[in-house]
Design goal:
By secondary structure, this protein is of the alpha/beta class. It has a single domain, classed as Alpha-Beta Complex (Spore Coat Polysaccharide Biosynthesis Protein SpsA, Chain A), CATH 3.90.550. The chain has six helices and nine strands. The protein has a seven-stranded mixed beta sheet, with helices on both faces. It has a two-stranded antiparallel sheet with strand order 2-3. Helix 2 packs antiparallel against helix 4 (129-137). The N and C termini lie far apart (36 Å). The relative contact order is 0.18.
Amino acid sequence: MIGVTGVLLVGGLSRRFGSPKALAILDGATLAERAWEALAWCDERLAFGKTADALPLPFPVEDDHSAIRAPLAGLVAGLRAASHNVVVVLPVDCPFATPDILRKLAAACEDAAVPQTGPLPGAYHRRTLPALEQRLAGNDLSLRGALRSLAVRVVSVEPAALANVNTAADLASLAELVPPPTLS
C-alpha cells in the first residue's frame, strides 16, 4: 500500500454559517474532530488553516501562509508539507466522509481522484503542486477549474456521504440523519 498524507482544511471564513464550522457540534463531536478521526488511517495527518484564528482544537493547525481563504490555499500548503506523494484532502464541513471513501480516493489517485460531486474531498498527487501553486499565485482559486488540467479519476460515492455543512440549517438537517447512539 502507498503512503498517504491526510490533510484537514479548517481555514474557511464560515460566512454563511455565522461562526467557525470547525467548532460546530454534530453528534457530540466538533466537525473538526469528526474529520480528524476520518483521517486517522493515514500515515500522516496535518491540518491547515489560519493560526490567527486560534481555534481551540485538540490537534495542531498549521498556517497555510496565504492571505487567501480558499480551499486551494490549504491544498497547496498540504501538498508542500506532505511526506507522502498521495495527499487525501478533507474539508472540515464534510462530516459524513468515511475512512473507506477516503481510502478509495487515495487508491484511485493519478494526478487527482475526486467523487462525482467535485474536487473535495479528494486525493491529489504531489506532482500537481506546481500547477496548483501557479493557480494560487494568479488568484485563480477554482479547484474545479484546476481539475481540467489534471489526470483525474472520478470515484462514485454515495451522495449522502458527501453532505456539506454551509449553514446552521444544513447542520440541523444532518443532525437528524445521525443515528441515535446504541445503549449497551
